[in-house]
Design brief:
The structure holds two protein chains of two kinds.
Chain A lengths: L2 H13 L2 H17 L12 E7 L4 H12 L3 E7 L2 H9 L5 E5 L3 H6 L5 E7 L3 H29 L4 H7 L4 E7 L6 H34 L5 H4 L2 H30 L8 H25 L6 H15 L11 H7 L4 H13 L8 H30 L1
Parallel strand pairs in A: 1-2, 1-3
Antiparallel strand pairs in A: 3-4
Chain B lengths: L2 H15 L1 H7 L1 H13 L8 E7 L4 H11 L4 E6 L3 H9 L5 E5 L3 H6 L5 E7 L3 H18 L8 E7 L6 H31 L3 H5 L4 H30 L8 H26 L2 H12 L2 H4 L11 H8 L2 H14 L4 H13 L4 H15 L1
Parallel strand pairs in B: 1-2, 1-3
Antiparallel strand pairs in B: 3-4
Helix pairs in contact in B: 1-2, 1-10, 3-8, 8-10, 8-11, 8-12, 10-11, 11-12, 11-15, 11-16, 11-17, 15-16
Classes of the chains: A alpha/beta, B alpha/beta.
Chain lengths: 384, 363
């Protein structure tokens, strides 16, 4: 059987399989639209807060006004008592409470350092962080302004007064994702995983399906065709489809959702090339292991969340158990996510990700050879 | 034997005869839970590596460095002579930030010129960036002793008082994996029956609704047990605080399991094919975690995301679990969530209808 015949047989088998087509076309496109949806507002903003103003002075109103002006917070209600505010918190109407005590203005004027109490719902961690950060910043600024004003009253010159509250300043600059945007955080990483998982499901259904046919004694091109011709056909077919998907994801989708991309096209494509090779080889390998068409989808699906959280973009690699770090390196997505993030989001040069590039090549070689031996072995068993 | 009993016992036999079906309700979910739990077992993040560029090299800058070093969250991985060297380490993800102490830092402090310490934080990794930022701020605030502001702020985190990521992430991740298993097992059970062409034999007595419910029941029980298992593991074995009632939560779990079985069958009757229904299930269940509103607030989601979220029973179950664990609301206060979960059962109506139609054509 010539390579051309094998290639067209494979092509026919793939495109006539609705389950594969749903996954590698409809799935890939739908996911690219669906996954970013929760994050389109980019960053956490305008979280509702209740202020219990027991002072009712111009100073406390000034604090409330400035708080409401902070981008993270919107002062949803001003409650008269702590009980009302807590009820609103329990009903999830607000996410945090701020209590300005009685005699706040008076105590401030007499330098008694009054205490503002802040309480937030910490069950939603990042929400809590957002409200706390906004509140702290706003109050610290107000506080510093008051401090300067107090010193000015005592005839301290303005330049000195400004310095008195802190001897040196900390200037924090966010790099790579300066707005703390969620879409920028999640999408570049999760897209890599989606590409891997859909590719694996497609190859898994195909490989498992052929194994199933062979074990039932069905005849077909897959018995006579040489193993390397079949494997090469799949590399070419799935490789070209997913090459287009990669252009669509990293080009069109990134633009559409406003995700930044700084890597040069040539570097991005060379990394994508070996990423695709590694995933396809892994897919050929697991496809050869599966005994039915239906095994791929569930197993790939179960692996998704563990793979996201061992990929070290959410949870730092320093905090992961060492064994899990090693196991996660068996999957192409782990080095690939890291590599794409560094290259395309953080502007690393290619030599800074050379180790990840090497891991993907090693995976390619190992999984490709394993797949070759497995498929050959199965055909051999069948012939005898 | 009654039709119900026949279908129920028949399914248990199916499970016993297939390692795959058996592992779907035992080993596989437990193994996935084990992996997630071990990822976050530490819960608190310590020693995030940063690079330090000390352009002053004075006694004061050394004091500052040792202050930063004493923070449990931060570890100074390396001191580099220039920012350029430091950035290489950041781009290699060997460090998550750079702290730069300016030249004449000591002198300028003495002269009250308020020198600026610059910290570059890699916020591509938002969670890590946030932890590093707050650790740096509190570490430097402690150091600047003259910091005496006129207003004090007292901060109290309600509910998750431990400020621990374990509870926060694991208690939402395990149910997200659990829902995938419920949907998959339902499709494996019905899909394999249609693939092996056993459906005529199964439905031959004509009581479709009873047979379908009886076939689902072994999985309903198994996944309810798996759910109770993780719930008790987190809140009893590991001992995290649980304010509310386990009865309400477990009742919600029961509603959730059946809700997912109904929606899984709805996916199935759309195609009546094993492999295709699995592809649909992948689209439906895989992105669920992002829509839960645990990591990213529901309040900031767009209309489409909220709509999709409403189609996932797990969103309501998670709200129930969190509010039971943290606020301990009464059954009455939770009734809207429970009712919402129950409303997914309506999916059985089109499911029964489609099965009836399909089987009447076949028989």
């Amino acid at each position: 059987m010539s390579f051309k015949e094998v290639f067209f047989n494979e092509l026919k088998l793939i495109f006539s399989d609705v389950a594969i087509v749903i996954t590698i076309f409809a799935g890939v496109i739908l996911y690219s639209f669906l996954y970013p949806q929760p994050y389109t507002s980019q960053s956490v903003s305008e979280l509702p807060l209740s202020v219990v103003d027991m002072d009712r002075s111009d100073t406390s109103r000034d604090i409330i006004f400035k708080l409401d002006a902070t981008p993270q917070i919107s002062v949803k209600r001003v409650d008269l008592s702590e009980i009302d505010a807590k009820e609103a918190l329990l009903a999830s109407k607000v996410k945090a409470i701020l209590i300005i005590p009685k005699n706040f203005k008076k105590d401030l004027a007499s330098s008694k350092s009054p205490t503002i109490a802040f309480g937030g719902d910490a069950s939603y961690f990042l929400i809590y962080g957002g409200v706390l950060e906004g509140t702290m910043k706003s109050i610290l600024t107000t506080s510093a302004t008051i401090q300067v004003a107090n010193l000015l009253k005592k005839q301290v010159p303005l330049s000195k007064a400004k310095l008195a509250y802190t001897p040196y300043a900390l200037n924090i600059i966010n790099i790579f994702n300066p707005q703390n945007s969620y879409i920028q955080y999640v999408i570049p990483a999760v897209f890599v995983l989606i590409l891997q998982q859909t590719l694996l499901i497609g190859l898994g259904i195909l490989g498992g399906g052929i194994n199933e046919k062979m074990s039932k004694g069905e005849k077909g091109y897959f018995i006579e065709a040489s193993t390397w011709m079949m494997m090469l056909s799949r590399v070419i077919i799935f490789g070209s489809i997913f090459f287009i998907h990669i252009l669509f994801y990293f080009g069109f989708s990134f633009e559409m959702f406003g995700v930044s991309h700084v890597a040069s096209i040539s570097e991005l494509l060379s990394f994508s090339f070996v990423f695709l090779l590694a995933v396809i080889s892994f897919g050929l390998f697991i496809g050869a292991l599966f005994s039915s068409r239906e095994m791929a989808t569930p197993l790939v699906l179960f692996s998704s969340l563990p793979l996201v959280f061992t990929a070290s973009f959410v949870w730092p690699i320093e905090a992961l158990p060492q064994t899990l770090v090693y196991i996660s390196m068996l999957f192409p997505s782990t080095p690939a996510i890291e590599g794409f993030l560094r290259l395309n989001q953080m502007g690393a040069s290619f030599d800074m990700i050379i180790n990840l590039y090497a891991i993907l090549w090693i995976q390619t070689i190992i999984y490709f050879s394993l797949a070759y031996f497995l498929i050959n072995h199965k055909k051999h068993l069948l012939k005898n | 034997m009654s039709i119900f009993k026949k279908a129920f016992i028949g399914e248990i036999k199916n499970i016993k005869d297939s390692y795959y079906k058996l592992s779907l309700i035992t080993v596989l979910p437990l193994f996935s839970f084990f992996i997630i739990i071990s990822i976050f077992y530490e819960g608190v993040i310590r020693e995030l590596p940063i690079v330090l560029v000390d352009n002053d090299k004075s006694s004061l800058s050394r004091k500052l460095i040792s202050h930063i070093q004493s923070s449990p969250t931060i570890a100074i991985k390396k001191m580099t002579p220039s920012l350029r060297d430091a950035m290489v380490l950041v781009k290699k993800s060997e460090a998550y930030g750079v702290v730069i102490i300016p030249k004449h830092f000591y002198k300028d402090t003495l002269l009250q010129k308020q020198p600026k310490i610059t910290a570059l934080i890699n916020t591509q990794y938002i969670l890590i960036g946030k932890m590093l930022t707050s650790a740096l701020i509190s570490s430097l605030a402690q150091n600047s002793q003259e910091l005496s502001l006129p207003i004090n702020i007292q901060v109290t985190p309600f509910f998750n008082t431990y400020q621990n990521y374990f509870l926060f992430l694991v208690s939402a991740l395990l149910p997200s994996i659990w829902q995938v298993f419920i949907v998959i097992a339902t499709l494996v059970s019905f899909g394999s029956m249609f693939k092996e062409k056993e459906e005529k034999e199964f439905f031959k007595d004509g009581f479709f609704e009873i047979s379908i419910i009886a076939k689902l029941l072994p999985y309903t029980i198994s996944y309810l047990l798996v759910g109770i298992g993780y719930l008790l593991f987190i809140y009893q074995v590991l001992g995290w605080e649980f304010q509310g009632s386990f009865t309400i939560t477990i009742f919600g779990m029961f509603l959730t399991v059946v809700a997912y079985q109904a929606t899984a069958l709805l996916l199935f009757v759309m195609v009546f094919d094993y492999a295709r229904s699995l592809s649909l299930a992948a689209l439906y269940t895989a992105p669920a975690f992002a829509f839960l509103g645990v990591t990213f607030p529901v309040l900031s989601m767009n209309t489409f995301a909220l709509l999709w979220r409403d189609l996932l029973p797990i969103s309501y179950y998670i709200e129930l679990q969190i509010s039971q664990a943290n606020y301990g609301l009464s059954f009455f206060d939770e009734s809207s969530k429970l009712l919402y979960l129950f409303s997914f059962w309506i999916a059985f109506i089109p499911v029964f209808f489609m099965f009836r139609k399909r089987m009447q054509d076949e028989l």
